[in-house]
Amino acid sequence: MLLDVRQAVRQRGTIFHFTHDEQIPPQEIFGDTVTFSNPVRFEGTFMMVEDVLQLKGILSTEVHARCANCLKEVNQPLRVEFSENVHRSDVKAEPDPFNDESTIPFDGYYAELAHLALTLAILALPIRFLCDESCEGDYQMQVEDAAEDEVDDSDHPFAALKQLLLKDQEV
Ligand SMILES: [Zn+2]
Q1: Which of the 8 DSSP states describes residue 23?
Q2: Would you give the DSSP letter of residue 95?
Q3: Is 30 part of a structural domain of the chain?
Q4: C-alpha closest to that of 35 among 64, 67, 59, 61
Q5: How far is the CA of 147 from the centre of ligand 1 (A)?
Q6: Residues 72-94 pLDDT 10s
């Protein structure tokens, strides 16, 4: 979706408020699928200062992922502040991979915010999701399983290691 900033081009130095919706497709992150409530919404202001578009505001959506411990679904609101100075994209120029501004293609009248939405959302994600700060799901389940089941020692993955340790003690 393109953000129409023509009014800011006509009235340079004037701040305009805007809301703008984008879609973020599901993302594969570390082998897990993270989805976003669409549309993700930009709310903020834009202003043209000379030939630079100044964009400021907040991107908001909700993230859906799985708890790293118990795999329960986790839903988290996501609010990311942004402040970007956008230069006109020169179509003829070689794309510069080190230039952040390439996340917002801008022809002077319309800015494309899809890539910015994705970048802001991904960078704001936690390293791992937990359904609760104290969630020890997987760990707890293993402890309970071990206590309930009559496990044959030789089946246990650490049985071999235990035998080695015992052998060492005997020597
Ligand atoms: Zn959990």
Answers
A1: -
A2: P
A3: yes
A4: 64
A5: 21
A6: 999 999 999 999 999 998 655 55
